[in-house]
Amino acid sequence: MKRFNELKKEMKKNLMVMVEGSQELQKLELIDNLERLGVSYHFKDEIMQIFRSVHDQISTATGDNSLYHSSLKFRLLRQHGFHLSEDILNDFKDEHGNFKQSLCKDTKGLLQLYEASFLSTKSETPTLLESANTFAMSHLKNYLHNLKGDHQENWMVELVRHALELPLHCMMLRVETRWYIDIYEKIPNANPLLLELAKLDFNIVQATHQQDLRILSRWWKNTGLAEKLPFSRDILVENMFWAVGALFEPQHSYFRRLITKVIVFISIIDDIYDVYGTLDELELFTLAIQ
Predict the structure, then answer these.
(1) What domains, with CATH codes, occur in the chain?
(2) Which pLDDT score, from 0 to 100, does residue 153 have?
(3) Among 98, 122, 224, 227, which is most exposed with the fewest C-beta within 10 angstroms?
(4) pTM (two decimals)
């Protein structure tokens, strides 16, 4: 834990330096990596301070950012509840309203555009982001199709393939974190302190989840419901996995254990209706619950 706390302190210091200086893109890239490596929850205040700074400067932006920069900014700000118009992406369209063909080889930019294209809001027409999604997906698939030799297994290829299988906003955070740690290790100029912090944090969080599961397993065994209701599915681990998906942070152990117990009973009731009970029994059971 001593090394972990040292790394966390050092990363917090780096973030505070970035608040005062550093290029906008550097800030956004660091935050993106903090989130995908599963350690952003340690730096919520610093991250929100950076986001507020970036958002406040939108009106004075020059509009000469790359597709990668603009798409990353659009996605991160929208994910965290900041309003950012989709018009930021119009800079990458030609006079006919189509995305410029010169962007076709910008794999990093296309990947961020693809991820950003899923973050439309109800108040806007989906046309622009839908066309962004179609454009980015088409060229990312072409990128994979045209790969040759050694390039078939590099880190960018893995990122693209992974995103096309399931976009980032659909991922379960802890599963994504475990996958991204291995990818980040392959990226040139990866921050070694951040990588070490992510690995230590993952192990600490995993140990907490394992302790939660041990406590829940004892509780489940003590209820005796697995023997009393043999028709019901014994899916305690799956139910806890759902709770981890909702809140994974170590300090939320009580929530995870409580919500897992609730889901267990919901699953049992579901099995009673689907598998075990007759129609007459279920009608009586429903009346009893009501």
Answers:
(1) 1-190 (1.50.10.130), 202-289 (no CATH)
(2) 64
(3) 122
(4) 0.89
